[in-house]
Design goal:
With about 260 residues, this protein is α/β, with parallel strands linked by helices. It contains ten helices and six strands, in the order αααβαβββββαααααα. This is Zinc-dependent peptidase.
């Protein structure tokens, strides 16, 4: 669907499938990091969220009941990442599965060296290449943590990373961005961060970011939206790359008048 037809269809969805004001205000009140948005940005976010909910299916697992608040809570955070982009960034998959709490991940994968690894662990989220996103509602609802932890932003950042293949911390960049600069900035920052974690230095960023370049990108994307000033302070070059990629500057001073 392209051009005028796409715009017509989106207007149709916004008119006939609106998010109720009560649910919208309920969700906004719980997501404090959204309070930085201007009124026009909130309006745009609501539009993307509405269209997202039309295009994606959110199902509960293990008897979890998916209410309208649950749907909007997940969708609005997913749409923060693409606020200045487009929902086409979430193409080629449709389902989000929500468990009541952490779920067991049990699968095998082959790393870049051809070594097979077996995984059996409790996790709060998972993104599958060309497949669903799986979330723990207990973790989605934990919006007041001090670490800037946000499982929805984390897993949807992985989805953006997977647009050009397996997640590796190198999503498809815009034409005006320099891939070599992205690689240099993220590689240097990742090495520095891993050294800090190995030295057991207290970090303002989740140590899980040291797991791999893919997790580094996802964790820093979480922090970029939830506590941007800390990313700008500790990794200013990474922050500028994320500003260019997401086309947002969440640490910037702005007027809400």
């Amino acid at each position: 669907m392209i051009g005028p037809l796409k715009k017509w269809w989106q207007r149709h969805i916004l008119k006939h499938e609106p998010i109720t004001e009560a649910v919208w205000q309920n969700v906004l009140a719980r997501l404090h990091f959204l309070h930085r948005l201007t009124p026009s940005e909130v309006t745009l976010l609501r539009q993307w969220t509405t269209i997202f909910l039309h295009e994606k299916v959110i199902n509960g697992a293990q008897g979890f009941l998916v209410t309208e608040v649950v749907r909007v809570m997940i969708a609005v955070q997913a749409c923060v990442l693409i606020l200045r982009l487009d929902l086409d960034y979430y193409r080629n998959w449709v389902e989000i599965i929500v468990y009541p709490s952490q779920f067991i991940l049990d699968h095998e994968y082959v790393d870049e060296n051809g070594v097979v690894h077996a995984v059996h662990m409790a996790v709060s989220g998972e993104s599958w290449l060309a497949g669903p996103i799986i979330l723990s509602w207990e973790d989605v609802a934990d919006t007041d943590n001090d670490q800037g932890y946000n499982v929805v932003i984390h897993e949807f950042a992985h989805k953006l990373d997977m647009l050009n293949g397996a997640a590796n911390g190198f999503p498809p960049l815009h034409a005006d961005m320099d891939p070599q600069e992205w690689t240099r900035v993220f590689s240097e920052a990742y090495a520095t961060f891993c050294d800090r974690v190995d030295a057991e230095e207290i970090a303002a960023i989740d140590p899980y970011a040291a797991t791999s370049p893919a997790e580094f990108f996802a964790v820093l994307s979480e922090a970029f939206f939830v506590k941007p000033c800390q990313i700008k302070l500790y990794f200013p070059d990474v922050y500028q790359q994320l500003v260019a990629f997401y086309r947002q500057d969440p640490a910037a001073e702005r007027s809400h008048g």
